Amino acid sequence: MAENAVTLTVAHGTTKHNIEVRGSESNEPLLNDLAEAIAQVTGVPLPSQKLIFKGKSLREMEQPLSSFGVKQGCKVMMIGKRNSPEEEAELKILKDLEKSVDQTSKKLEKVDGELTGLKNGFLAKHLQAEALSKLDQRVKVAAEQFMKILEQMDAMSLPENFSDCRMKKKGLIKTVQACLAQCDKIEAGISDHLAKLQSKNLALSE
């Protein structure tokens, strides 16, 4: 069975690094795991790296290292430049925004879980309307947060050569748009459940 961690020598210019590469969970390491470990140690981002082993360029990121013949103690060459300090500063802003997206997304998941609980009758009927109103408010706060993040990214003017930043920004915009769609879906679920409650109450009062 292949090991889920290997130590390799990575030559970058005149510098050599001994880098331990671990696979996720109990899986053997992939080329992507190596590229990420190199980025951590050298500061050269993944899109700027060119990895060479025994004269061949390694490109298939999702392939295990063993499929290229790369094993414990092997030497891999990396060509690539670190980002400029200006790009690193922009990248840090994007990483901070990514953390905010992650935190807000977790809050949204919690609201979704609580809404499912209400639909399954985990709360007395007469308390549900107030609970739904509070959930609706939390969804609106999350949606507002996502909109602010989109506005911040929209205001970022990234030069063409900031490829790492541009790629991260593009991915983050897609994530935020998916989160906003989730907000709409949850709000629709809240309105739907509230309408059902009101029609039941109306039927009972008649």
Automatic annotation (TrEMBL):
SUPFAM superfamilies reported in the protein's UniProt record: BAG domain, Ubiquitin-like
Ubiquitin-like domain residues: 4-85
GO CC annotation terms, alphabetical: cytosol; membrane; nucleus
Superkingdom of the organism of origin: Eukaryota
Gene Ontology terms: biological process: protein stabilization
Keyword Cytoplasm on entry: no
A Pfam cross-reference name: ubiquitin
Molecular function terms, GO-annotated: adenyl-nucleotide exchange factor activity; protein-folding chaperone binding
Keywords of this entry: Chaperone
Domain spans labelled BAG: 107-187
Protein's recorded name: BAG family molecular chaperone regulator 1
